[in-house]
Each structure stands twice: as C-alpha cells, then as structure tokens.
C-alpha cells in the first residue's frame, strides 16, 4: 500500500488546482434511499460527493491522502480502507466510488469486509465496467515492470459485483459515465512490445521509482539504451488502432447499490 499512498499523494499535488466534479456522473445516478441519515464515503478524495450532499445528512469521509481531506466540508479521518476506525453498523449508507479496483490482493478481502462491517443498511460502490487491464499497461523506465498507470489491479463485471458482499444483496446495478471501448484482443500482445512510458510522478509498484519528466535516474545511460526509440509513436499507434477497430462499446462505470439482508 505504500506505493499507492505515495502515488495518490503525487496525484493530488498535480490535480489540487483543477476544478472539482470529476466522477460526478457516478453519484448523480445514485438514488439515496429515504431512510438514510448518515453516510460514510470511503476513499472520498477531495470530497466532491460529500460536499454535494445537503447538510441534513450526517457525513463522514475517509481517505489515505491527508492533504486531499482538507477540501472536505465535513468530518474526515485519514486512514486506509482495510482498517476503518468505526464501530460495526455505524452508518446507514457506506459509499466507495472508484476504489475497489485499486486494492491489491493482500488487503482486498479485508477491505470489502470492513465496508460491510461498518454499514447498517446500505452500501454503494462504483468500479470501471469490464475493464481490460492489460490494454492500459505502461512500462517503468527503471525496472521495466509493466503495470496499469492508474493502479487498477482487478476488473469487475455485474456477476462479480453481485457476489461482492456476504450480508448485503444488490438492489440495482447500472452502467453510467462516458462511453469507452476496447482494442481488439491481439493488442494485448503488442502493448508490452511498445512499452509506453508512464506519466510524470507515476510510482512503479515494483521498484518504487518515480517517473520524472527529465527521466534522470542513477544509471540513466544504461536504461536509455534499452528504451523504445519513440514511445509517443507507440501510444499513437494504439490510439489509431482503437479508433478504427472498436469493440465492446459501453459506459465507463458500474454503479451498484446494496441492501443488508433481512
């Protein structure tokens, strides 16, 4: 989790001056049940969702990036999702938007269990819709590790979401967000060969190297020799393929509302 925390702290520094509202297409589609009085948003980031809610709700936000929480206009706690510092059944509704796809296998089961534990009535989660993880892979400039630049480590579909929680059952599951599409499957084999470079400030999950625009590292000369000559051309090639051969066109997110079993 250390690399995730470091990356999201870097990401916050890059995005802190941007206008809020990214992801609003998710919670604008969430129908909050009438009997909800208290809400916990897990991975609340800058608080766009919580800040959009009326003060008639008792609102709480948690996130691993302490600086981001300074923008949230309600009670906040800096913590990780696998260790939520609340008693069981503390909130009527627990939300977690665009979080679960980031969680590595060593904390994923505990994190899901924690979300379930602290919810009294409802849970709402959103995740990317049937994402093809390999098609977004980038290659670390230092150790050559291939990874998803947004640190998405798992993909979800409706069937997986239906089985996500033990004591909660889905009430609704809708697709929302901008339309996306996949490359043809053969592009999965081309991506490692093209080796697209991560964006600046991206942290490699394997070696911890932070990408810099100057790309100055301790053994820069030896690594530069092994790098593809034109990474931008490779990225352009993938974009061209996608524009001509689109498949599996769909909305970006799956938003699921769960209710505790009677």
Note the topology.
Elements: H1 2-15, H2 24-27, E1 38-42, H3 48-52, E2 58-63, H4 66-69, E3 75-78, E4 91-97, H5 108-118, E5 119-128, E6 138-139, E7 146-147, H6 158-162, E8 168-182, H7 187-194, H8 220-226, H9 231-244, E9 247-260
Parallel strand pairs: 1-2, 1-4, 2-3, 4-5
Antiparallel strand pairs: 5-9, 6-7, 8-9
TL;DR?
This protein is 27% helix and 25% strand.
Explain this structure to me?
The chain has 262 residues and is an alpha/beta fold. It contains nine helices and nine strands. It has one domain: Rossmann fold (3-Layer(aba) Sandwich). The chain has helices at 2-15, 24-27, 48-52, 66-69, 108-118, 158-162, 187-194, 220-226, 231-244, and strands spanning 38-42, 58-63, 75-78, 91-97, 119-128, 138-139, 146-147, 168-182, 247-260. Strands 3-2-1-4-5-9-8 form a seven-stranded mixed sheet.
- End-to-end C-alpha gap: 35 Å
Named at the architecture level, the CATH assignment is: 3-Layer(aba) Sandwich
The largest pleated sheet is described as: 7 strands, mixed
CATH class: Alpha Beta
Number of domains: 1
Average pLDDT figure? 83
The CATH topology corresponds to Rossmann fold
Shape: globular
Record keyword descriptors for this entry.
262 residues, alpha/beta, 7-stranded mixed β-sheet, two-stranded antiparallel sheet, 9 helices
């Amino acid at each position: 989790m250390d690399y995730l925390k470091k990356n999201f702290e870097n990401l916050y520094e890059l995005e802190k001056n941007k206008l809020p509202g990214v992801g609003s297409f998710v919670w604008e589609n969430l129908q909050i049940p009438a009997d909800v009085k208290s809400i916990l948003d897990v991975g609340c980031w800058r608080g766009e969702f919580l800040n959009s809610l009326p003060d008639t709700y008792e609102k709480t936000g948690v996130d691993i990036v302490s600086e981001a929480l300074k923008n949230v206009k309600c009670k906040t706690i800096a913590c990780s999702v696998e260790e939520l510092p609340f008693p069981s059944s503390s909130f009527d509704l627990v939300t977690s938007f665009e979080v679960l796809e980031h969680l590595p296998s060593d904390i994923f089961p505990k994190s899901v269990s924690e979300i379930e534990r602290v919810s009294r009535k409802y849970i709402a989660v959103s995740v990317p819709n049937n994402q093809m993880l390999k098609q977004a892979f980038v290659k670390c400039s230092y150790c050559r590790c291939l990874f998803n630049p947004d640190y998405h480590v798992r993909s979800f579909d409706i069937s997986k979401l239906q089985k996500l929680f033990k004591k909660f059952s889905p009430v609704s599951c809708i697709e929302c967000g901008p339309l996306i599409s996949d490359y043809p499957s053969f592009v999965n084999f081309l991506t490692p060969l093209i080796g697209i470079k991560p964006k600046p400030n991206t942290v490699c999950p394997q070696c911890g190297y932070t990408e810099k625009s100057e790309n100055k590292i301790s053994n820069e000369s030896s690594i530069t020799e092994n790098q593809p000559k034109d990474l931008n051309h490779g990225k352009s090639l993938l974009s061209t393929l996608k524009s001509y051969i689109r498949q599996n066109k769909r909305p970006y997110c799956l938003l699921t509302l769960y209710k505790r079993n009677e």
